[in-house]
Amino acid sequence: MPVELDWENLGFSYMKLPYRYIAYYKNGQWEEGRLTDDATLHISESSPALHYGQQAFEGLKAYRTKSGVIQLFRPDENAKRLQRTADRLLMPQVPTDMFIKACKQVTKANEDYVPPYGTGGTLYLRPLLIGVGDIIGVKPADEYIFTVFAMPVGNYFKGGLVPTNFLIQDEYDRAAPHGTGAAKVGGNYAASLLPGDQAKKAGFSDVIYLDPATHTKIEEVGSANFFGITANNEFITPISPSILPSITKYSLLYLAEKRLGLKAIESDVFVDDLEKFTEAGACGTAAVISPIGGVQNGDAFHVFYSETEVGPVTQQLYDELTGIQFGDIEAPEGWIVIVD
Ligand code: PLP
Ligand code: COI
């Protein structure tokens, strides 16, 4: 049974739950992982994760369905993305079955913190892979920690399904053209802290970054991917080697085409060509689908559908995606993993 919490108003904040998973990589192999109630990591002061950013993370959610069953959404895709990120940073891969088992164990051990069905809340899981040990030269660690912790969350952007505004950033980049933008590494987020803070202080939900090579195309939001809908029933998301390959975005590309009958397109999205979009949104695990009301682009402010109301196609996509995640709508094969 869920514990007593203000489930409807969770927001997106850290909460220390009773259990997390931890596994150590030593002598070239993963040791057996286990659950622990210790929420503090004990690592060497010289750990490469601390100095050279040899670390990666993931984000996925557990959902409580109407019947009370708890399920994960496409955890194998998070496992695969973490493996690609690990390759990029010369870290050992966490095998997919170990990753999914860890996520299931942490969810099960903290099941009283999986928000009740109907509150809109979910259990956010944060897998983390870090290089540790006594190393001071710039080289990969010999030892690693893989941990998964969790917390109940609600909306990431304060509006939820009410549109909010975003700031197109022309001064700073989150990633380099051939850097680590497509990998889920902390360094990308460190680069986004200053522009993100400036945008929030100016009243925007987050930054929309442009392609780092030419600053003419939309890349993504600091914490989510971007999509737009056109009057020709197209669902368009930017294509670029320096944006994070969002699992939500690829799910929406599939659902837009197969379930909503839209044309799903990954292509360049020129910042001078926003007029063609009748609706726009940010999508991601934390962001779910967050409608973008308007964007500030230099001196110009461009409104997509409305600053106060979600557009009809964005609403349909939201209903389809969250219906699948909460078990109300049949999922495409392999998308749902039950926590048993
Ligand atoms: N882009 C960035 C920069 C993110 O941090 C996230 C969040 O994970 C996403 C996109 C969305 O990815 P996903 O849908 O896999 O959560
Ligand atoms: C996620 O959606 O899982 C993210 O990682 C976004 C943000 C919290 C960094």
TrEMBL record:
InterPro entries: Aminotrans_IV, Aminotrans_IV_CS, Aminotransferase-like, B_amino_transII, BCAT-like_C, BCAT-like_N, BCAT_family. It catalyses: L-isoleucine + 2-oxoglutarate = (S)-3-methyl-2-oxopentanoate + L-glutamate; L-valine + 2-oxoglutarate = 3-methyl-2-oxobutanoate + L-glutamate; L-leucine + 2-oxoglutarate = 4-methyl-2-oxopentanoate + L-glutamate. Pathway: Amino-acid biosynthesis; L-valine biosynthesis; L-valine from pyruvate: step 4/4; Amino-acid biosynthesis; L-isoleucine biosynthesis; L-isoleucine from 2-oxobutanoate: step 4/4; Amino-acid biosynthesis; L-leucine biosynthesis; L-leucine from 3-methyl-2-oxobutanoate: step 4/4. PROSITE patterns: AA_TRANSFER_CLASS_4 (PS00770). It holds the Pfam family Aminotran_4. Its cofactor is pyridoxal 5'-phosphate. GO terms for biological process: isoleucine biosynthetic process; L-leucine biosynthetic process; L-valine biosynthetic process. Keywords: Amino-acid biosynthesis, Aminotransferase, Branched-chain amino acid biosynthesis, Pyridoxal phosphate, Transferase. GO terms for molecular function: L-isoleucine-2-oxoglutarate transaminase activity; L-leucine-2-oxoglutarate transaminase activity; L-valine-2-oxoglutarate transaminase activity. Its EC number is 2.6.1.42. The modification N6-(pyridoxal phosphate)lysine is found at K184. Belongs to the class-IV pyridoxal-phosphate-dependent aminotransferase family. NCBIfam families: ilvE_II (TIGR01123), PRK13357.1 (NF009897). This is Branched-chain-amino-acid aminotransferase. It comes from Streptococcus minor. The lineage of its organism: Bacteria, Bacillati, Bacillota, Bacilli, Lactobacillales.
